[in-house]
Design goal:
The protein is of the alpha+beta class. The protein is built from seven helices and seven strands, in the order αβααβαβββααββα. The strands form two sheets. Strands 1-2-5-4-3 form a five-stranded mixed beta sheet. A two-stranded antiparallel sheet has the order 6-7. α5 packs antiparallel against α6. The mean pLDDT is 89. The chain binds ligand 0O2.
């Protein structure tokens, strides 16, 4: 009896190690992806002098949620089936200021040569019937483990602050009513989604106008402002001119 128990215990321990390795690969993929996103965020900040990314949240799906999804999707309960069918075990949510930032970030990520695009669902161009808007990407990224290279999928949801505000409220309501949301709230949520989309469009227009103004204004300045390590520094135009002049001289 004790021997059977011991064998079971050994099996369970081996399985635990296997599962931990499985989950860790997703955690490492998230770490890699977060580094890429942070670099883009900082670089964007230096060059364009504003935060295109407001905040980033990431998570590895809990084993309990993975199990629920396996049951909901009627999948086989084994590692291979989970690996092949559940692509959001590693997930990142990026919240941006403006709708145009979403597509800039999408391009900047997709153009990196170690990233493969497995899937793209644009719920901004085609919102869900309930009003949900967001850009969903499944990107595959290599993770280098002691056992070799593994390609791990990461789900990236990119949305504006308004889209995120709406989705959080809708999610809360959906679970509060145990997925049976009263008709009048569904209608109100749809109206709120339309209002949020209107707000995004308005903010985008205002921002474009400000940018044109900023560009024209900077032509008349004595110095250009740059942003280094969250600090604004003035680059005198005389300095830029003489560096530019020296460069032209060396090239000749
Ligand atoms: P969690 O806890 O957020 O991760 P999938 O189930 O992913 O295989 P689907 O439905 O095709 O299949 O995926 P889709 O459309 O890419 O959406 C997956 C995720 O997007 C959801 O994750 C939500 O986070 C979000 N989402 C999609 N639709 C809605 C919506 O109508 N309202 C809100 N608030 N969020 C939405 P999970 O799996 O639900 O859970």
């Amino acid at each position: 009896m004790d021997t059977v128990k011991n064998v079971r215990l050994t099996d369970m321990k081996a399985l635990k190690v296997e599962l931990t390795r499985f989950m860790m690969a997703y955690k490492f993929a998230l770490d890699e992806m977060n580094t890429k996103i942070n670099i883009l965020k900082e670089e964007f900040n230096y060059i364009h002098d504003y935060n295109s990314i407001e905040h980033v949240k990431s998570r590895v799906k809990s084993p309990e949620s993975i199990l629920k999804k396996v049951v909901r999707k009627n999948l086989d309960l084994n590692m291979q089936s989970i690996r092949e069918n559940i692509k959001d075990i590693a997930g990142v949510r990026i919240t941006c200021s403006f709708e145009s930032d979403i597509y800039k970030i999408q391009d900047m990520l997709q153009n990196q040569k170690d990233i493969n695009v497995l899937e793209c669902k644009d719920y901004i161009k085609s919102p869900k019937p309930n009003g949900y808007r967001s850009l969903h990407l499944i990107l595959e990224i290599p993770v280098f483990l002691s056992s070799g290279e593994e390609l791990i999928p990461v789900e990236i949801q990119i949305r504006t602050i308004a889209m995120d505000f709406w989705a959080s409220l809708e999610h809360k309501i959906y679970y509060k009513y145990n997925k049976e949301v009263p008709e009048h709230l569904l209608t109100e949520l749809k109206d709120a989604a339309t209002a949020a989309a209107g707000l995004d469009a308005k903010m985008e227009r205002i921002n474009k106008e400000i940018n044109v103004f900023k560009e024209n204004d900077s032509m008349n300045e004595e110095a250009l402002l740059i942003n280094v390590n969250e600090e604004h520094m003035a680059l005198p135009l005389r300095l830029l001119e003489s560096i530019g002049h020296a460069k032209t001289e060396t090239n000749h």
